[in-house]
Amino acid sequence: MADYENFIFKIDTDGIALVTWDMPDRSMNVFTEAVMEEIEALVDRVAGDDEIKGVVFTSGKDSFSGGADLAMLQKIMSQFHATKAKDADKAARELFGNAGRMSWLWRKVETCGKPWVSAINGTCMGGAFELSLACHGRVAVNDDSIRLALPEVKVGIFPGAGGTQRVPRLANTQEALQMLTSGQNLSPKKAKAMGLVHEIVPKKKLIEAAKKLIRDGLEPVQPWDEKGFKLPGGPVYSPAGANLWPAAIAILRRETYGNYPAAAAILKCVYEGLLVPFDTALTIEQRYFTQILQTREAEVMVRSLFISLQDLNKGARRPQDVPASKLRKVGVLGAGFMGAGIAFVTAKAGIPVVLIDRDQEAADKGKAHSAKLMDGLIKKGRATEAEKEKLLSLITATPDYAALEGADLVIEAVFEDSAVKREVMERAEAVLRSSAVFASNTSTIPITDLARNSQRPKNFIGIHFFSPVDRMMLVEVILGKKTGDKALAVALDYVRAIRKTPIVVNDTRGFYVNRCVLRYMDEAYSMLIEGVPAPMIENAARMAGMPVGPLALSDEIAVDLVQKIMKQTIRDLGEKAVDPRRMGLIDTLVDKHGRFGRKNGKGFYEYPAKPAKKHLWPNLKTLYPQQDPEKIDIEELKSRFLYVIALEAARVMEEGIVIDPREGDLGAILGFGFAPYTGGPLSFIDGIGAATFIERAGQLKKKYGNQFKPPKLLAEMAQKGERFYGRFAPAGEIQKAA
Ligand code: NAD
């Protein structure tokens, strides 16, 4: 029987133990309770066996490790809340113990008396990088595609297994803070330049180089455990420290507006930790980690941005009984702005693409977009010429529909015009076999309407991308009334293949994301009309956690497109559907001043030639009488943005457009950056509680209008004390129950 379930242990003739982490039945190594127990046993064995001179720790997978299994962390957090209800002291003690479990185990590794070398063969994240930092030597394969990172802050927590202490004891404090508070990825080269790894070597030489460090007499003592240790960035209380710290605090404040307690805790850990001996520093980190694990931000960010994200990426909404589809060929109709991007991401996933436009020139132009994107990646060292050639060879640009023959999926991205869409669909269906799936990337036309013209509406579906297609991770998959399970499965298999995150949405005007986005922008237009100064509007939105202000976003989307959408809404739903004052504002910008947005260099912002930065159009303040900024409640502006979006998300749930809260939350975060620290708009309501939320929404409705009218669903939830997570079971369970 093997000694360990998750590790292979082999001692060579020099007495060096090669420990290879290779978890059975997992494609990636992660820390689970069982893995931690085995590491503890390994440390004891190594420390107690005189024959063993040192350890080389590596991985048997392509990557080194993804870090801790966050599902384990989620369990710890919910266990804390459950125990707290009965015995708060006991809950706090248990949480403190759990928060330090990994940290003190890594400390045991570094103080066990034998040298450990981490041989980093592939991507190494979170707790695994922290374990590597606790090793006395670190050797990594010199490959730019390998990422080393402590990304915890991105999910509302921080590197609590010594990361906040070892990084600033190895690297310059400023670089350390930047790395820790942004969760940025480092290439092995960059990590070496920062002092976080000792050597970078070709893949073949990895283990040998690691062993050589031990044979050459690597001391089993970390620099910070030696007398006279000096911090690479100098002490906190020094001229350098006096320069760094006030600026670091100001930068963090500017970037997070105090919305991310974990990022602030990192600064505290580093500042306080660098003033004291190492063991005390680890205890400080453990205390802050315990605090952070109790925050709502940690709870909901881990849930939405890790657990739900993984679930949706793995196909939580995929009909189980449809066999996995193989996409041997995908057709893209329309090689414009969106079609060109769709062709790129498809070919990047290794799938052959036929890219069709009205003539050869237009089709070629679409293909050239892929060449340009690959050139950009090559410039950054993230792709090679050979990869570019291979990707381009997968794209056939042509005006000839016959080339679609044999395609398993066709996605149309032609003009937003039902007649044009009908024509291209009919031409494609004439060539496609009957089982092929046809998808539309329309942003406004109901899928059910488009499907009416199809020979096989069961195979018709919406696959709605966001621009720019290569960067936006979300895809809305839209079900028409007659869309069948097979089409849904193929669409989800496709989204998975191109490594994006799908949400499944029932057919409605604007689907899900755009409905919320329009509310966000509309609220900003109302504020402008009320005389709130434009800079205050943009700042309030960013302070609320939105990455892009609503006026800047309007410019990106194009103000004339906003005008078109408003006019179409009036045509479809009547005059009352659009507030005439808001329509007036947009008409003034577009018709009177020719301000179409970023695309013509004039919108809510001015776009002077570089290097000058864009700035708000000064004349905005002449359009409406301005309020005195001193008298405006910025907190109320922030609430208006968050509430107006959350209310729309709640309506979407009530209408059954989105049925799974995980999708409602992630769709808003990935689709337009809805304040990630809230966990998403539905988690935001859950956090406040439906009853309190309705009360506050009612106050806003009185002052600002019906956009704040809570849907009946919320009243019912308030009455029953329900939350979205709970009332709406994740869709996987809904399907099983049905
Ligand atoms: P675009 O004008 O850049 O591209 C449309 C392309 O379709 C053009 O290259 C045009 O030559 C081609 N085309 C028109 N008629 C054709 C025909 N009969 N046969 C073959 N090709 C034809 O438009 P876009 O911004 O890429 O939008 C395309 C679709 O994607 C629209 O339905 C739009 O609503 C949707 N969409 C756009 C965005 C966005 O941000 N632009 C986002 C999501 C969805």
Characteristics of this structure?
N-(1-d-carboxylethyl)-l-norvaline Dehydrogenase, domain 2, eight-stranded mixed β-sheet, 11% strand, 3 domains, 2-enoyl-CoA Hydratase, Chain A, domain 1, 21 strands, 738 residues, six-stranded mixed β-sheet, globular, alpha/beta, single chain, binds nicotinamide-adenine-dinucleotide, Rossmann fold
Helix and strand topology:
Layout: E1 7-11, E2 16-21, E3 30-31, H1 33-48, E4 54-59, E5 67-68, H2 70-86, H3 88-110, E6 116-120, E7 124-125, H4 126-134, E8 137-141, E9 148-149, H5 163-170, H6 173-182, E10 185-186, H7 188-194, E11 199-201, H8 206-215, H9 239-256, H10 261-273, H11 278-293, H12 296-313, E12 330-333, H13 337-348, E13 353-356, H14 360-379, H15 385-393, E14 395-398, E15 409-412, H16 418-429, E16 437-440, H17 447-451, E17 460-465, E18 474-479, H18 485-497, E19 501-506, H19 513-530, H20 534-543, H21 550-557, H22 559-573, H23 580-592, E20 605-606, E21 615-616, H24 620-623, H25 634-654, H26 661-672, H27 681-688, H28 690-704, H29 712-720, H30 724-727, H31 731-737
Parallel strand pairs: 2-4, 3-5, 4-6, 6-8, 7-9, 8-11, 12-13, 12-15, 13-14, 15-16, 16-17, 18-19
Antiparallel strand pairs: 1-2, 9-10, 17-18, 20-21
Helix pairs in contact: 1-3, 2-3, 2-12, 3-4, 3-11, 5-6, 6-10, 9-10, 10-11, 12-26, 13-14, 14-15, 19-21, 19-25, 20-25, 22-23, 25-27, 27-28, 28-29
